[in-house]
Amino acid sequence: MDTIEIIGQVVGIVAVVISFLTYQMKSKRGILAMLSCATVLFCIHYACLKAPVGVFLNIVGIIRNLCYYHSDKKILSSKFVPIILASAMGVLGIITWEGVHSLFFVVGLMLNTLAMGYFGPQNLRKSLLLTCTLIFIYNACTFSIGGMINETVAVISAIIGLVRYRRENTTT
User: Fold this and answer.
1) pLDDT (tens digit, 9 = 90+) per residue, 87-135?
2) Which value, to the nearest 10 degrees, does the dihedral of the CA atoms of residues 119, 61, 151, 153 take?
3) Residue 168 CB partners (closer than 8 Å, separation 6+)
4) Which among 40, 81, 89 has a CA at the least distance from the CA of 62?
5) Which residue, 58, 115, 141, 142, shows the most beta carbons closer than 10 Å to its own?
6) Integer CA distances (angstroms), 88 to 30, 66, 168, in order
7) What is the value of pTM for the model shown?
8) Cα–Cα distance list, 26 to 87, 134, 155 (Å)
9) At what angle do helices 52-69 and 28-48 cross, to 10 degrees?
């Protein structure tokens, strides 16, 4: 591992810490704000690991998070926004294709994007059980230590959130 890759792994670990806090937020807006911070760091992480699928799909992920955060704006509240964003991820996934392992990341983030657009916090946490597993596979193939830890922590954290907020309305 060269110096840039080591720096990338460290940045990935910092992103994991922020990601853990993401799934402990009570509101969808809180989740999106924290997730955006972590996603910026993961872009840097994947760039250092020379993993273009991870970089470009996370850039769309930042745009996605901002769109969903500001979904009170008429143009961003359209039911087509999640489909447009997921489609952009699919196109970028094809353009930046690294191999078959890329498919796990692309499908995982596309599904996550749709879940974030259409689900409340509890169902979003449930969807993470699938999407995190898919993204974990990509991270294992690219030897993204932070990514593998993040997906493991995200599943654990989502389960904690599911239990913690189990009695609340799933549409908030």
Assistant:
1) 999 999 999 999 999 999 999 999 999 998 888 888 988 999 999 999 9
2) -70
3) 122
4) 40
5) 58
6) 24, 15, 33
7) 0.85
8) 28, 25, 16
9) 160
- pLDDT by residue (tens digit) across 33-77? 898 999 999 999 999 999 999 999 999 999 988 888 887 888 888
Task: Show Cβ contacts of residue 10 under 8 Å, excluding neighbours closer than 6 positions.
Answer: none
Alpha-carbon span 75 to 71, nearest angstrom: 8
Tokens 């907020």 — which residue? 165
Nearest to 165 by CA among 44, 54, 31, 3: 31
Distance, CA of 140 to CA of 154 (rounded, Å): 15
